[in-house]
Amino acid sequence: RKSLVSSDDFNVDNLYEILNLASDIYREPKKYSNLCNGYVLASLFFEPSTRTRLSFESAMLRLGGSVVSIPEPNVSSVTKGESLKDTIKTVSQYSDIIVMRHSQEGSAELAAINSDVPFINAGDGGHQHPTQTLTDLLTIKQCLNRLDNLVISVCGDLKFGRTVHSLVKTLSKFPNNKFIFISPEELEIPEYIKNDLIKKNIEFKEVRTIEEVIDKVDILYMTRIQRERFFNEAEYMRLKDSFVLDNKKMSLAKEDMIVLHPLPRVNEIAEEVDDDNRAKYFKQVKYGMIVRMALILKFLEVM
Ligand code: CP
């Protein structure tokens, strides 16, 4: 029984297997349209989501499978006090694969241990979001044709940003990648990620503005300052406008760089940037569904 809890569950070989399958699905989606006939995906989202939830559900439907879900977290028996362990054991009896998002760090690991069917973490608190990483990697591979020899800058809330944590750990597995972290001091990337890079002898630096590095990067990965993870509203208000990418800053960037964002955005990318052909965040949304189709096929061992 396979499970995906964190980006540590991937190695370079199985990443390429999923990404190559995803590229083929992108080219010829019709070839895959009946492969999950008779299989059921359970979609358990205890935290809000648009992209991850709908892309997983759409992926399963496009593969010919079916989806069961709890429409709102507060209509499940969790509100009556049922434990996550019992919920997962129950849902395992109704489905062939489970996708779950939950606000608590570590919830994905607990669910994976207790599931009788393949389990996929769709985001656990501020910890990890490994399928967003697959989305990001497919976008980078499709747009830049490589996953190595890149200068990657990530900008915004690097403390709570689970998409960033998964992405940096995963891109650090590919040769000659370098990282630039752009954040306020209060939202720096966690020490365990910096220590991991130091241990692997991977170059990185921390800066406070986009302007000082944008001309050097192949990828600028913007993220939202995450209001829901702050304990203190005044602190959020002080930091929420720390970074705004606009056309003036983009005029300093290389012609062949790309801008990514896991979305949703608030105001950290001005809408005027959407028309720049280096802005790839809405392509990223489409690739998210495609790569989740590939992941479902691999986890159900249909391919
Ligand atoms: N990128 C992402 O996880 O978006 P959602 O929160 O809408 O799923």
UniProtKB/TrEMBL annotation:
Q: Which residues bind L-aspartate?
A: 80, 162, 224
EC number(s) on record? 2.1.3.2
Q: Which SUPFAM superfamilies match?
A: Aspartate/ornithine carbamoyltransferase
Share an example GO biological-process annotation for this protein. Answer: amino acid metabolic process
Catalytic activity reads:
carbamoyl phosphate + L-aspartate = N-carbamoyl-L-aspartate + phosphate + H(+)
Where would I find the Aspartate/ornithine carbamoyltransferase Asp/Orn-binding domain in this sequence?
A: 150-297
- Explain the purpose of this protein: Catalyzes the condensation of carbamoyl phosphate and aspartate to form carbamoyl aspartate and inorganic phosphate, the committed step in the de novo pyrimidine nucleotide biosynthesis pathway.
Recorded family membership: Belongs to the aspartate/ornithine carbamoyltransferase superfamily. ATCase family.
Q: What is this protein called?
A: Aspartate carbamoyltransferase
